Amino acid sequence: MTEISNGDSKIQFKPVETGFQVNLPLVTLSVTDMALLEALLADDSTTFLKGRVSLKATELQLSYDNPHHWPTLSQIIFQKNLAQRLQIAIAIVTLALNQQLPV
């Protein structure tokens, strides 16, 4: 499991057999909000990855199936030119450094 935290809240990414799960801190959702979130994740025509949502006692859980056609990170990187690879490397280092900052 991988965790990302900004000091206030924590997001957990957990690989499962068919894809991955994202666990978010429990937020107050109305019935309408929950229905909208379920509709967005169930619709293939949206820009969101198709998934399922469930409300647990202490967290909001989003489950996604991992499409087999997704390229790996190494496949994506080697399709880029040197300048694009440098941009990706800078973005990854920046994200990593931001995760280490004290809050």
Structure, explained:
It is a single chain. The protein is of the alpha+beta class and 103 residues long. The protein is 36% helix and 29% strand. The chain contains 3 helices and 5 strands; from the N terminus they run E-E-E-H-E-E-H-H. It has a 5-stranded antiparallel β-sheet. A hairpin with a 3-residue loop joins strand 4 and strand 5. It is globular and about 50 Å long.
Care to give the gist of this entry?
About 35% of the residues lie in helices and about 30% in strands. It is an alpha+beta fold and about 100 residues long.
What distinguishing features does this structure have?
103 residues, alpha+beta, five-stranded antiparallel β-sheet
Average pLDDT: 79
Which percent range fits the helix content?
25-40%
Which structural class matches the secondary elements?
alpha+beta
Form type: globular
Low-confidence runs of at least 5 consecutive residues: none
Distance between the termini: 22 Å
Binned strand content: 25-35%
Oligomeric category = single chain
Total DSSP E strands: 5
How large is the radius of gyration? 17 Å
Sheet of most strands: 5 strands, antiparallel
